[in-house]
Amino acid sequence: MLRLLVVWLISTLALLAAARIVPGFRIRDFSTALLAAAVMGLVNATIGAVVHFLAFPFKILTLGLAHLLVNALLLMLGAKLVPGFRIDGCLPAILGALVVAVVNMLLIRLVF
Asked: Which pTM does this prediction carry?
């Protein structure tokens, strides 16, 4: 249970980092980021699992680039579901997905 809470907090920090770094990637405040991280977790666990499975051949063909694009689309979906979380276009979504992935990876490795 503690691990789940830590990963949720790390995802929240990753979303806040993306909002700080990427122009067009906006999160209103910390509580919005907490909600967005929870929604992104649910989206990735449900819809994301199916979409990643269906996109697997394209991931092979693009040497993993499709994975980043799928994550960007899932981020855009999450932004539609959470008030106060906004992404202004495809490029901010792609850059945001990249920042979130890198920050998540670094912080999870640091903590665990």
From this structure: 0.95
